[in-house]
C-alpha cells in the first residue's frame, strides 16, 4: 500500500488531471486520499507544497525515463519514439498535471516541464550528435504523444488504421542514417 504522502500526491495529480487546478483544494485532495486535512498538512503544508511535490515527482520520473533511454538496447531515439504513446502512466499523469498547473500560473511547474523536455532533447542530441536530427526525432515523439493523449489512436483517415510503430521506427532509422556528418 502506498504511503499517506504518496496517496495525497496521487490524489492531487488525479484531481488536477480530471478536473483542473481550482477543484484541487486541500479539502478535496484529503478526502480523495482518505486522510484527514491534518494528515495532508503534515506532508504538504499548502497547495504550493503540493505543486512542489508534484514537480519533484516529475523530475524524478523524467530522470528515470532518461536513464532508461540511455540504456535502451535499440537506442535512445527508438526508445523515445516508442514510448511516446504511454498515456495514463505515472509519468504521463505528472506531465499532464504539471501542464495544467503551468496554465494556472504556477511557474515552478513550467520550469519543471522545461527541464523535462530539455533533458529528453539533450539525451537525443548526446546520442545522435546532431541537434536538428534530435529535434526532428523529439517532434515525431511529441506528435505521437499528442495524438495518443487526445485519444486518437488511428489515422485521421479511418482506412489507414492504427499507427504502425515499426514503420515509424524505420523512418527514425532513416532519419538518423542521413544526419549530417559532425
Automatic annotation (TrEMBL):
InterPro entries: Homeodomain-like_sf, HTH-type_TetR-like_transc_reg, HTH_TetR. It comes from Curtobacterium luteum. It comes from the Bacteria. Residues 2-62 form the HTH tetR-type domain. This is AcrR family transcriptional regulator. Signal peptide: none annotated. GO terms for molecular function: DNA-binding transcription factor activity; transcription cis-regulatory region binding. Keywords: DNA-binding, Transcription, Transcription regulation. Residues 25-44 bind DNA.
Amino acid at each position: 500500500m502506498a504511503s499517506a504522502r504518496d496517496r495525497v500526491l496521487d490524489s492531487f495529480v488525479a484531481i488536477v488531471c480530471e478536473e483542473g487546478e481550482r477543484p484541487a483544494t486541500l479539502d478535496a485532495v484529503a478526502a480523495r486520499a482518505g486522510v484527514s486535512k491534518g494528515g495532508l498538512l503534515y506532508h504538504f503544508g499548502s497547495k504550493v507544497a503540493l505543486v512542489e511535490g508534484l514537480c519533484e515527482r516529475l523530475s524524478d520520473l523524467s530522470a528515470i525515463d532518461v536513464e532508461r533511454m540511455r540504456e535502451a538496447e535499440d537506442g535512445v531515439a527508438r526508445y523515445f519514439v516508442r514510448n511516446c504513446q504511454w498515456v495514463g502512466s505515472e509519468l504521463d499523469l505528472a506531465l499532464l498535471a504539471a501542464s495544467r498547473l503551468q496554465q494556472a500560473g504556477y511557474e515552478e511547474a513550467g520550469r519543471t516541464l522545461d527541464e523535462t523536455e530539455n533533458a529528453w532533447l539533450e539525451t537525443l542530441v548526446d546520442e545522435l550528435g546532431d541537434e536538428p536530427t534530435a529535434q526532428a526525432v523529439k517532434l515525431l515523439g511529441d506528435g505521437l504523444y499528442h495524438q495518443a493523449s487526445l485519444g486518437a489512436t488511428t489515422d485521421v483517415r479511418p482506412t489507414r488504421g492504427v499507427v504502425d510503430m515499426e514503420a515509424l521506427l524505420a523512418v527514425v532509422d532513416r532519419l538518423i542514417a542521413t544526419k549530417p556528418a559532425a
